[in-house]
Amino acid sequence: MPKPMSLALRFLGSLLIFSHCAGRALAANYLFFLEAQGVAGYSSAMKKTIFFSMSQRESMQKPSLGFDYVQRFSGASGDIAALVVQARLAVNAEGLDEVEPQLFNAFVRLRLAGNYLWAGHNRPKFGLASWFDSHGHLLQPLSMSGFGFDRDWGLGFERDFSWGNAGLSLTTGSGMPLYFKGNYFLSGRIAGGVLDRDNFMTGLSAAYGRVLDVEGYHLQSDEPVLFEMVGVDSTWLLNNLENRLEIMAGRKGDSAAWAFLWRTGIGLLEEGRLKLEAQPSIFRTAGLTNLQLTAGVTYRADADWTLRAMVQHDREMRDTRFVFQVYYYKGLRF
Amino acid sequence: MILRLLKSDVAILIILWLVAGLLGRPLQAAVGCDLNDPDRDVKRLFPESTGYKTLYLSIAQKGGEAMLRRVEERLGDRFQGLYETIDVPYTMYQIFKGKDLIGYIHGVNQKGTYGGIQVFLAVDLEGNIRAFYFQKLTSQYGKQLRDKAFGNQFVGLNLRDFASYDVARGAVKGEGKVAAIRNPAPQAEPDFRAALRAAKKNLILIDEFLLGDRYLES
Predict the structure, then answer these.
(1) What is residue B19's predicted lDDT score, i.e. its pLDDT?
(2) Which of B6, B44, B54 is the best residue to mutate to test the A interface, defined by the most A CB atoms within 10 Å of its own CB?
(3) A148-152, A211-215, B112-116, B128-132: which range is least confident on average?
(4) Contact, A103 vs A84, CB < 8 A?
(5) Distance CA B25, CA B180 (A)
(6) Helix (H, G, I), strand (E, B) or coil at A84
């Protein structure tokens, strides 16, 4: 096994031990979840069985084992801060790195007079992905198609209002890995509506920066490219129906870029255990326009186990892909 | 290839995890019911507050099977579904004015007509309801149920008042304050009953976790 991999494993092991110790010392102030998933499918273009949902080089989704940890810190008169760590060890069926450590959340969030400040690896304030956590899902928002980042390294500020939420972040524009090559990503989002309260939320986002072209942990180019983009995202719920919409337009690199995504879903059975979703998306980057048609089904077997399946047609890749996921998420107390 | 991986360092990490699992015991099986925005919500429900503390509690951790049976008996119904497992985490907020504790906020997930609904209660130190509201409710009749006038009917009630509410039958025995609560949306009767069940369950959990079983009749 290559040295960096062993180091990464030791890092994850240390995090695990740290989280155990923290948990023992501060019982009832933390949440700790074990996460495991199996992912397998078939690609018509590759004509073979695959063990990923997007690509071998992307972070999501692959067979993996991980954890999700939240530790709150309080003073005599209330909460002060929270430490959030979410990491995985993913298995690559192909390529040199057979085991890939993945760090999704790794940030500290401070509470200051009604404002939240965070530093570390978190979701930048841009688009649907800035608040909608998809890190366990098969269907992904536009951030996973090159329109922003699912996670990025940096700093962020956020405030909730009676009418909604606003936030700003300054991150490295390198996504999962951390690089300093003159890259940066400044983004902000202002949203009207509180989804759980109003069953409706619409956000306006804007971003400017020079970002690196990355696929998961793989750097495609050393040269940062221009990223200037505005976007609107909207989510609304009614009875057992869900709709999410995301539109972006601007420039990426030397060319115009735009994207449109619509996800519609219906929850069925008691407690909405069965969810059926459809997601058409179309996007243009680097002079190429691509259409993806995706359908997904999610079944929550019980409180710990979730089964998901997805079929996705990618016009550019001339690929139809079937992917199945068994997902386990279980809380532990130490 | 998979077999080769299992023999490598990954196996070591898996063993570490399993040992961790043995050292620990199951706590939560689903994410708990958190306030959307604690700063905003706490200030709205307790305008005089200056801070809050978040606690994570579970029946498995506090009293195990015996406590679960007791809670079910007090509720008059079995715990079932995704959000009523023994290890589901309950997020409870202690509200402070300076260093003085002045009340609690707690929300529960409850099976509704369309998936889950979330019912939050703000209570004083004696367990009397200061505020009732739905955080999550996607029903088309949500507007009527979310109306302040509906929530205000719960203000001042405590667990003793809910003793007359038969959760399993969805009916009130005799007269009482709970019997006086009116459903603003008769078409949404299942969600109305779910709200009453959620309020009673919520008060029982607050009593068990935070009030030292003040309302538990011997």
Answers:
(1) 44
(2) B54
(3) B112-116
(4) no
(5) 43
(6) strand
What is the number of structural domains in chain B? 1
Calculate the average pLDDT of chain B. 87
A262 contacts chain B (CB < 8 A):
no
Give B 152-211 residues with CB within 8 A of chain A.
Answer: none
ipTM, two decimals, is 0.84
Arithmetic mean of pLDDT over chain A: 91
Q: Are A142 and A167 in contact, with CB atoms under 8 Å apart?
A: no
Structural domain contains residue B94: yes
Distance CA A238, CA A241 (A): 5
- Name the residue range of residue B91's domain: 26-209
- Alpha carbons B91 and B83: distance in angstroms, whole number: 13
pLDDT of residue B37: 86
Contact residues for A86 (Cβ-Cβ < 8 A; gap 6+): A66, A67, A68, A69, A103, A104, A105, A106, A135
Q: Where are the alpha helices (DSSP H) in A187-274?
A: 195-198
- A271, B10: Cβ pair inside 8 Å? no
If one counts every other C-beta atom within 10 angstroms of the C-beta of residue A318, the result is: 9
* Closest chain A residue by Cα to residue B86: A303
CB A293 within 8 A of CB A299: no
Judge whether B29 and A303 are in contact, CB under 8 Å. Answer: yes
**Domain-located, residue B77:** yes
Give me the residues paired with residue A298 across strands: A275, A308
Residue B14 lies in a domain: no
pLDDT digits (tens, 9 = 90+) for B177-205: 999 999 999 999 999 999 999 999 999 99
- pTM to 2 decimal places: 0.87
Query: What's the confidence (pLDDT) of residue A14?
Result: 55
> Do the Cβ atoms of B115 and A78 come within 8 Å?
no
Question: Does any domain span residue B126?
Answer: yes
**Domain parsing of chain A, residue ranges:** 3-331
CA distance B117 to B195: 8
The β-bridge relationship of strands A78-91 and A319-333 is unpaired
**Across the A/B interface, how many CB contacts are shorter than 8 Å?**
158
CATH of the domain spanning A3-331: 2.40.160.10
Q: A32 touching B, CB under 8 A?
A: yes
